[in-house]
Amino acid sequence: MDAQVTPRPGAAPAAAPRYPITLRINGQETRLEIEAWVSLLDLLREHLHLTGSKKGCDQGQCGACTVLVDGKRINSCLTLAVMQNGRDITTIEGLAEGDTLHPLQQAFIDHDAFQCGYCTPGQICSAVGLMNEGEARNADQVRELMSGNVCRCGAYPQIVGAVTQVMNIPAVVETTDRSVVVGTVPV
Ligand code: FES
Ligand code: FES
């Protein structure tokens, strides 16, 4: 029968177990010991001080924490760091090549695709993942496939402009039935 052990008053609580993991973060192999409940986002921000990835909602609703795991975009607040053992993680800090910005970073600047900038690292990492997926063919598909990345400042037109430019796809969706385009006057 299991006996309930009552800690002595004043006794230090038992240390939580930590688990060894190895991650390749922005090209650098990183060995850590971490508690099982630590999210990948908290590992990056609180333990490794890679604060480019932002914590907006901490529950998978805003996309501010988007990073790339083996080239695929994920919400880093929704995964435990221990689950990513052995994976290749890329954050916004790992996209530039030395002093040369990633084309998406440069395009966001050129298009003025941010205001407060809080969503921007997640938007850019998500756009890199979108390009890796190769599914988006026009601006509408960019909007749809990046709908998990919320911008409270409403910089969506500029974000879509930046992403479509780098992807070299149409920034405006052609339509043959102009009567169904809300807000336009058919000609
Ligand atoms: S902080 Fe991860 S989705 Fe909002
Ligand atoms: S630029 Fe402010 S939330 Fe997107």
UniProtKB/TrEMBL annotation:
GO terms for molecular function: 2 iron, 2 sulfur cluster binding; metal ion binding; oxidoreductase activity, acting on the aldehyde or oxo group of donors. It comes from the Bacteria. InterPro entries: 2Fe-2S-bd, 2Fe-2S-bd_dom_sf, 2Fe-2S_ferredoxin-like_sf, 2Fe-2S_ferredoxin-type, 2Fe2S_fd_BS, Aldehyde_Oxdr_Iron-Sulfur, Beta-grasp_dom_sf. Keywords: 2Fe-2S, Iron, Iron-sulfur, Metal-binding, Oxidoreductase. The keyword Iron-sulfur applies. Residues 19-95 form the 2Fe-2S ferredoxin-type domain. Its cofactor is [2Fe-2S] cluster. Pfam families: Fer2, Fer2_2. The keyword Oxidoreductase applies. This is Xanthine dehydrogenase YagT iron-sulfur-binding subunit. It comes from Pigmentiphaga litoralis. The lineage of its organism: Bacteria, Pseudomonadati, Pseudomonadota, Betaproteobacteria, Burkholderiales.
